[in-house]
Each structure stands twice: as C-alpha cells, then as structure tokens.
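Below is our example:

___
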Amino acid sequence: MEIFAFILSLACVLLNAYGKILTWPLAIASSSAYAYVFFNSQLFGDAALQFVFIGLAIYAWITWYKKDLCHEPNHPSFSRIPANSISQSAIAWLVMFLIIQYVLQNYTSSDVPNIDAFLTAGSLLATYMSAQKWLENWLLWAFVDLLYIGLYVYKDLYLTALLYGLLIALCLLGWRHWSNQMKVEAS
C-alpha cells in the first residue's frame, strides 16, 4: 500500500506544481492510501490528517474550479499571501498544534506526539494555502517535508521518506512554475 500511496502522491504534487486541477482527485486517492499506511505505523496524527486532507482536497477542487471559471486577465490565478494572513496563519498553526498535541498525548498511543502534531498542523496550513493558490505554500511545504523525512526514517517508512525528499524538489518546481505564471499574468 505504501508503494501505491507513494506513486499517487508524486503524481498529485507534480500536477499541483503545474497548477492542474486534476491534482485534487489524486490528492483524495493518495490521502486515502496514506491514511491506511500511517494508521498501521501508529502515526495517528498523520493518519487523521489524511481525512482532513480529503476534505481540504474537495474544498480546493471546488475553489480552483471556481477560480478557473472566473479567471479574468486582471485577476491572476496565483498570488502571494496577503500580509494580514501571515500572522493569522502563524496563530492558526500554533492553535492547531496545541489541539492536535493534546489529542495525541491523551487519546492515542503515539510515541511521537509533539513532532506529529507540529507537522500535522503545518501540513493543514500548507494545504489551505495551496487551495488559495498562494505562492508561499511551496515554502511551507518544503519546510514541513524536510522535517517529515526524519520522522519517516525514525518510523522505518523509508519509501515515504524518499517520497518527501522528492516532494521537496517538486516544491522548488512548483515555486518556479507558479512564480513564472504570476509574472506572465502580470505583464
């Protein structure tokens, strides 16, 4: 199952890097597969996160579809995060971390509740930012993915650790493609 989830996740992020709406149905499929993998590895925060990802993928799919329908030359498809959303995002990450950490410490047998909660909250925020088509989602994903590599090696999920290394490279590709698209649309 990890191999299947690996392939779906790579395809999903590659399509996202190119701004293709098909990324979201693949996100639903890959999240479903990884929910199974993570639950079996006792990464309960990551397993639960996959169900939230499914919900966010549905939201993003609808959001991207609406933005694509309403796309006008003076309204770029990708944008930078609004200044007032930066502090709100940091606060949201902290609040989500504290809630998830509490749940993992008190209601699961997780042996890594702190890092699991931190990365789960960061992943939720990065997914929301991607749904909004904010360029900076790629920076947050690269940071979170780097930390996930260490967690997955610790949990003996070597293929998934490799995936997250590849995802960092795709973050760079996504950043470049979205930045270039923003420049083209601005001119």
Observations:
- Residues 2-186 form one domain.
